Sequence to fold (340 residues):
Amino acid sequence: MDEDLIPPRMRARQIGRQALEARLRAAMGEGALSHGWIIAGPEGAGKATLAYRIARGLLDPSALTDADSFDMPETARTFRLIAAEAHPDLFVAERMWDEKKEKHQSEITIETIRKLTSFLNRTASGGGARVAIVDTADDMNRNTANALLKALEEPPKGAILLLLSAAPGRLLPTIRSRCRRIELPPVSDRDVEAFLVAEGADPGQAKNIASHARGRPGYALQLAANDGAEAIGLALAFLKAAQSGGALAPIIAGVTGKAGEARWPIFRDTVLASLSDAARTAATDGAAIGFDGVSAGALLDGWQALTQLAGRGEALNLDRGQMLEAMAYDLRAALRGRAA
Fold:
């Protein structure tokens, strides 16, 4: 499929959120929408897509096509303006691009939040709502969060703040207390698979990718567009080889070099998530597929060892081949270190 994924601000559809959107539309119709919302969910769950859908509905409710969703025609003026990042009544606070370092800054700056506050205090161009999206609130430091808190404490009339967060428990308690929370639960594998196929993914790979996306449609799209199927296969091969002492050379070759740069994050996350899932399964069912005779405690030990090793290796920019060999050794030691 095309590796240039459609950004959330340009997406006309979202899956798995119909009931949630119906509840929000009902609250909107009753005038019961809060001025501050935390949209919570893991990376790739669809937080930004939902935020832009809500923003469109708040800024131009007359353009919505039905009473139970935030569906809006792509030809609508508000849709086109938001897609072009040109709507005067929408402000998006995010990490800025650093031209010198050619990457995004590590945090949302306090200057950005001050611009957000100033924006909220202006009169809306259409005489209605002003909407600000913070993508993501996890990227704020304490000073920035305190600056945002002022906007939440004394919100101007008609101002709505949508804070996206993968870890809402880490946000300031004072921010959490002033916002209502929207949780994005996992979407079914079947729906994610159908979504991938509709987006142009290989039907032969869609089912496998959907099962490893763990209910996150956006993450599934990233997997499909970035050698996700290959990276998943390499991760499963690594887990098997690490247990048996099998050859690692083909796996190392697959996650190094130019192609390996895109595959590595998916590979790493799949290895760690597979161990975490297996530990939970072993704890509840007594055994996990692919880890015959391995206890939940041993699997948890393996997950902890690899999480720490991968984190250190990336921080120190270690040779990926050596890091994988060390990961295989530590995992094998952990799995053998406890009796089932």
Observations:
- The chain has two domains: 8-183, 226-336.
- The radius of gyration is 22 Å.
